[in-house]
Write a structure and sequence with these properties.
The complex is a heterodimer.
Chain A lengths: L3 E4 L2 E4 L5 E7 L8 E6 L6 E4 L13 E6 L2 E6 L9 E6 L6 E2 L3 E5 L1
Parallel strand pairs in A: 2-10
Antiparallel strand pairs in A: 1-3, 3-7, 4-5, 4-8, 6-7, 8-9, 8-10
Chain B lengths: L2 E5 L3 E2 L5 E8 L7 E7 L6 E7 L4 E3 L7 E6 L4 E6 L8 E8 L5 E4 L3 E5 L2
Parallel strand pairs in B: 2-11
Antiparallel strand pairs in B: 1-3, 3-8, 4-5, 4-9, 5-6, 7-8, 9-10, 9-11
Classes of the chains: A mainly beta, B mainly beta.
């Protein structure tokens, strides 16, 4: 099973600042099958990034993903008020599919 | 726009079987994979398993002995059963569409299942 470790656990930032979230895998993620999800309280997760760096239709371009192998990054270029949430990475290249423990982005 | 809606009992007694159904609207279930994920209160996400419309399944080994996922293409629904539940199975259960290389793109709103006597 691939274990995903996200850091930091909590990120305290102000609107307008840049957020950099890390996801490290215990072994290489096949074909960069790495996704990022955003979850707000009481809501289902929302897909932000798939294939490590691709954005689905409708996701703002301030969200970007990068990385390969075992190290991946989600960057939010300028935080908007609606971006304060919990972010999860997920690998879907190997079974069982696994999620990281999450990074909470909170208002400073 | 594809929509998913979970339905289930809300409360299940310890040692009994949890049964949930996910109804898919706005698109056919006869394409892609369909998946179940759960989230204990205040904790992270756990993949339970998924099914292809042909009936092919894959389960998380941590739950495999207790889980069955099935599909009913005539009703555009897929279902989850989890046997011998304990308090540790208390969670919000989500269904989602698994589009393979493009991740889980549509999710249900989730349903809270509490295991308690």
């Amino acid at each position: 099973e691939i274990v995903l470790t996200q850091s930091p656990g909590t990120l305290s930032l102000s609107p307008g600042e840049r957020a950099t979230l890390s996801c490290r895998a215990s072994q290489s993620v096949r074909s960069s099958y790495l996704a990022w999800y955003q979850q707000k309280p009481g809501q289902a997760p929302r897909l932000l990034i798939y294939g490590a760096s691709s954005r689905p239709t409708g996701i703002p371009d301030r969200f970007s993903g990068s990385g390969s192998g075992t190290d991946f990054t989600l960057t939010i270029s300028r935080l908007e008020p609606e971006d304060f949430a919990v972010y999860y990475c997920q690998q879907y290249g190997s079974s069982p599919l696994t999620f990281g423990g999450g990074t909470k982005v909170e208002i400073k | 726009q594809v929509q998913l809606q979970e339905s289930g009992p809300g409360l299940v007694k310890p040692s009994e079987t949890l049964s949930l159904t996910c109804t898919v609207s706005g698109g056919s279930i006869s394409i892609f994979y369909w998946t179940w994920i759960r989230q204990p209160p205040g904790k992270g996400l756990e993949w339970i398993g998924h099914i292809f419309y042909t009936g092919s399944t894959d389960y998380n080994p941590s739950l495999k002995s207790r889980v069955t996922i099935s599909v009913d293409t005539s009703k555009n629904q897929f279902s989850l059963t989890l046997s011998s539940v304990t308090a540790a199975d208390t969670a919000v259960y989500y269904c989602a569409r698994d589009v393979g290389a493009r991740g889980f793109d549509f999710w249900g709103q989730g349903t809270l299942i509490t295991v308690s006597s």
